Amino acid sequence: MKITPLSKHLIGPVHHLMTLGEPFIFARTTSDYWAYGELFASTCPVALIDDEVVGAVMAFRSQVEPNEIYIQDVMVHPGHRNHGVASALLGSIRDQAATWGCTRLYLTSEPQNTAAQATWRKLGFVNVPGDYEVDEVSITKDFKGMGKDRAVFEVRLHSR
């Protein structure tokens, strides 16, 4: 498996991959992926096996809290799940975070996305206490706007 930054020639295959993530991941426009590759390539890794896109992460370093990286989307092709793809992708984000001296990686999931929540826990993410619980998962009310409750998961990193 090769991990490489998002680039122009990978936009189409990454867009297609993201379409496979519904109902929890929705593909952005190809213009959005172009911007991610141009402006955030170091935190938007793509996993390739035999030149086929099998996974991708869209993540962004906060301009408000530069010690934090928010992970927007993590998508692994259904035929390549449980083979370490998400771990490798998130490992590249952790490496970049360490280079920058970041102290927190975080992401969210819908309360019903139990498969993703199990993955986050397996990869060392901790569910942040929120406002209420659903099936033993803490949920933060309106985290992503009115009516968009989310389970928030984070990994705390040591700064250099």
UniProtKB/TrEMBL annotation:
- PROSITE patterns assigned to the protein according to its UniProt record, in alphabetical order: GNAT (PS51186)
Concerning Gene3D superfamilies, the annotation shows:
3.40.630.30
Q: Name one GO molecular function term.
A: acyltransferase activity, transferring groups other than amino-acyl groups
Q: Domain named N-acetyltransferase: which ranges?
A: 1-144
- Keyword annotations for this protein? Acyltransferase, Transferase
User: Which PANTHER family does this one have?
Assistant: AMINOALKYLPHOSPHONATE N-ACETYLTRANSFERASE-RELATED-RELATED
- Per its record, how is this protein called by name? GNAT superfamily N-acetyltransferase
